[in-house]
Write a structure and sequence with these properties.
The chain is mainly alpha-helical. The chain has one domain (about 10-400): MFS general substrate transporter like domains (Growth Hormone, Chain: A). Helices cover about 80% and strands about 0% of the residues. The protein has 18 helices and no strands.
């Protein structure tokens, strides 16, 4: 009961969330999560730099995703235990150091280690999003989370474009060095500008970690949302991790710059996020998740039916991105209302499951591309989407969202 009383007092005392603060949090979320995706358009370049085959260098993407899942469990729950502004600023500083380490990596082994650390510390995005949900209040939660998620998605979008172009026309190390400098600046700005948010629990770190399993067991909606998003994200990451290798082959014969530019196609997903957030505030979150899964499957089907087509590839990317982001925003809107005293921990469980799916998708995507070429990649993505759709529909049939 003590923890429940503390969170209620904390929510009553939460500072007002203005547009400037929302914009700052959206930018911070985007900047941090971008660190996960810089490597994807550059995998071909990294293979040449480190004299490695595509399967080996794909572990840069795999370990970044797995590091994120690890960081979600180890770091993100601390948002319930410690003052969030200071925690966010400190984690951004650590992320800057990890990015500088990647920029200076002399070999593939060092690059893999740095990528793991980048993934762990990029979870600062998942301290920012629950903080926004906490400050927003029930009536605005979907809208505010949708706006912050739009910033996060913009970071994903621009990360691929910027890294692809910089790596093609300058040097891949410049990508990580610039990202490290941006993270360092963000640490200072956030420490000065974010509102102070006190802890919502006095649980020890060990008990916080132990409580994650209890939250997973207690909330069927959390289990379903995590499983659905993990499957969707597995297909999504498998696609983006192998796209650069696909584009290097005929009939495209393109490099990292084009792989990065195709990331701009995902702008539709960024626009969709706040719209889905507003719709989620009105109800029907489960239906929005279902529609998102259907869109993702349709996107991969379009790619499969139009091999070697730029138009088919672009339409497929739009549908896949909109589907994934719509389901993500709707799932987050429904899990944040489950237990106000444990929002950071609930978000931790959800995102850890999701990024475990992403890590698995990276690994399976590399194997699928090696064995079956592009057919294996889009087939894997479509299969993941269909599995997610089945989990959502069957789960909702047993228990209402």
């Amino acid at each position: 009961m003590q923890d429940i009383v503390e969170i209620r007092l904390g929510e009553e005392a939460a500072p007002e969330l203005g547009r400037g603060t929302i914009a700052l949090m959206a930018g911070a979320a985007g900047l941090s999560v971008a660190s996960l995706y810089y490597n994807q358009p550059m995998l071909g370049i990294l293979a040449g730099e480190f004299s490695a085959n595509p399967a080996s260098v794909s572990w840069v993407a795999v370990l970044t995703q797995l590091g994120y899942a690890l960081g979600l469990v180890a770091l993100a729950p601390l948002g319930d235990r410690f003052e969030r502004r200071g925690l966010i600023a400190l984690t951004f500083a650590g992320l800057a150091l990890a990015l500088f380490g990647a920029a200076l990596a002399p070999g593939l082994g060092t690059m893999l280690a740095a990528s793991l650390l980048v993934g762990v510390l990029a979870t600062v995005a998942q301290q920012v999003v629950p903080m926004a949900a906490h400050l927003a209040g029930e009536a605005r939660r979907g809208s505010v989370v949708g706006t912050v998620m739009a910033g996060l998605l913009t970071g994903i979008l621009l990360s691929r474009t910027v890294s692809g172009l910089v790596a093609a026309y300058a040097d891949w190390r410049d990508v990580y060095a610039g990202a490290g400098l941006a993270a360092l600046i963000a640490s200072v700005v956030l420490a000065a500008r974010l509102p102070r948010v006190e802890p919502t629990t006095r649980l020890s770190y060990g008990r916080i970690l132990l409580s994650l399993a209890g939250l997973f067991r207690r909330h069927a909606t959390l289990r379903r949302a995590g499983a659905v998003q993990a499957l969707l994200f597995a297909g999504f990451v498998a696609f983006w991790a192998e796209l650069a290798f696909y584009l290097e082959r005929p009939p495209f014969s393109q490099g990292s710059a084009m792989a990065g530019l195709l990331g701009l196609v995902g702008a539709v997903g960024v626009v969709a996020a706040p719209v889905v957030g507003r719709l989620a505030d009105r109800g029907g979150k489960g239906r929005l998740v279902t529609l998102g899964a259907v869109a993702l499957v349709a996107g991969f089907a379009v790619m499969g039916l139009s091999p070697g087509s730029w138009i088919g590839l672009v339409i497929g990317i739009v549908l896949v991105d909109v589907g994934l982001q719509s389901a993500l925003v709707a799932n987050q809107a429904r899990i944040y209302g489950l237990d106000p005293a444990a929002r950071s921990r609930i978000n931790t469980v959800f995102m850890a499951v999701m990024f475990l799916g992403g890590g698995l998708g990276s690994a399976l995507g590399a194997q699928a591309f090696a064995a079956l070429g592009w057919t294996g990649v889009w087939g894997l993505g479509a299969g993941c989407g269909l599995a997610a759709l089945a989990v959502e529909v069957l789960g909702r049939g047993r228990r209402a969202a």
